[in-house]
Automatic annotation (TrEMBL):
This is Agmatinase. It comes from the Bacteria. Its EC number is 3.5.3.11. It is an enzyme of class 3 (hydrolase). Binds 2 manganese ions per subunit. It comes from Sinobaca qinghaiensis.
């Protein structure tokens, strides 16, 4: 597929640059084949794009405008319904292509398993890769009811791929006892319940390191993001997640890509979740890419 081909669907606000000329590529991964509770996150990428129309292109937080970034919305990947392995293969092959073309990728899910092939591709290019994981759930299972391809497993897979000491989890407040035990004994950098304070302490350790950022929208309290498949009470606010995104962007880390996953719009008729997600993505587009 040529990403310079016209995308027939809606695009994220401000996408004007061709793939060839773009520095940053936004793309959707509409997959929810392995969810454990409520499906619907495959509709997240499209609804986030639609919600972005209500955004200003200017960020007063960063004093930047989307016109300042050459980015291209490549649309949604065509993922075969109900086939997790083939879908993951397509995502990984696509990511390899983006990295060969020196693009900064920002992915929109979809369930959280879509982050796994991206992290694999990133680790092949950046041998000292670190992962910042912001989520309500540990995602540290080896399988879910015998299925190793599950949205409850991507962070465990990342730990086994790049080493648990290179994975930094924040905001987690749900998981099996065995997952919490693994997080606390494996060498992971595990910071449950909170995001802002532990993130401020950890970011100096990531100075100049290549860092991939994966954000599950369910880190937010359901009051702010009811439109997700596995909502979990006791989360952070939209303001706190914005602060975290800005802290990461302002840090000395070399951010190499990011994703935002698990928006399931059918469960949020007020569209609070998609509206918040579109703003987070705008801030990532404007704040994450850095020259090295």
């Amino acid at each position: 597929m040529s990403f310079d081909e016209a995308y027939s669907g809606k695009v994220f606000i401000g996408s004007r640059t061709s793939y060839t000329d773009a520095d940053l590529v936004l793309f959707g991964m509409p997959m929810d084949w392995t969810v454990s509770f409520r499906p619907g996150s495959r509709f997240g990428p499209g609804r986030i794009r639609e919600a972005s129309v209500g955004l200003e292109e200017y960020s007063p937080y960063l004093d930047k405008h989307l016109e300042d970034v050459r980015y291209h919305d490549a649309g949604d990947l065509l993922l075969p319904f109900g086939n997790p392995q083939k879908s993951l293969d397509i995502i990984e092959e696509t990511m390899d292509g983006f990295l060969r073309d020196n693009k900064f990728p920002i992915g929109i899910g979809g369930e959280h398993l879509v982050s796994w092939p991206i992290m694999k591709a990133m680790a092949r290019k950046y041998e000292d890769l670190a992962v910042i994981h912001i989520d309500a759930h540990t995602d540290l299972r080896t399988d879910y009811e015998g299925e190793v391809l599950s949205h409850s497993t991507p962070i465990r897979k990342a730990c086994e791929w790049i080493g648990p000491e290179n994975v930094f989890s924040f905001g987690v407040r749900s998981g099996e006892k065995e997952e919490f035990l693994y997080a606390r004994t494996s060498g992971m950098n595990f910071h449950p319940f909170e995001v802002h304070e532990p993130l401020q302490r950890i970011l100096p350790e990531l100075h100049q390191r290549p860092v991939y950022v994966t954000i599950d929208i369910d880190v937010l309290d359901p009051a702010y993001a009811p439109g997700t498949g596995t909502a979990e009470a006791g989360g952070i606010s939209s303001k706190e997640l914005l602060q975290a995104i800005h802290s990461i962007g302002h840090s000395g880390a070399f951010i190499v890509g990011a994703d935002l996953v698990e928006v399931a719009p059918v469960y949020d008729h007020a569209e609070k979740t998609a509206i918040a997600a579109s703003k987070f993505i705008r801030e990532m587009i404007l704040g994450f890419p850095k020259a090295r």
